[in-house]
Amino acid sequence: MRRAIPGVTQHMLTLQLRDLEADGLVKRTIFPEIPPRVEYEITPSALALRPVFEELFKWSQEHGFPNARPKMSSTGKQNRQPSPPR
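RE: above sequence
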């Protein structure tokens, strides 16, 4: 996940994921392996926010923010859409 977010430090990513977990938006699963492995997944509560984010994305496109991030699929993965030309 850290490689997918340019410039984020491991510390900051961990803090944000723990906050999202505490808010019930992310589920963390720890596997008792060597080396330790942790997986994160989006919870149903977070997926229920999809319409809100779609409206925010729509608003950003209509109000001069054409380079906003693409919409998320129902699985929480980004739909790959090309950026509009500058």
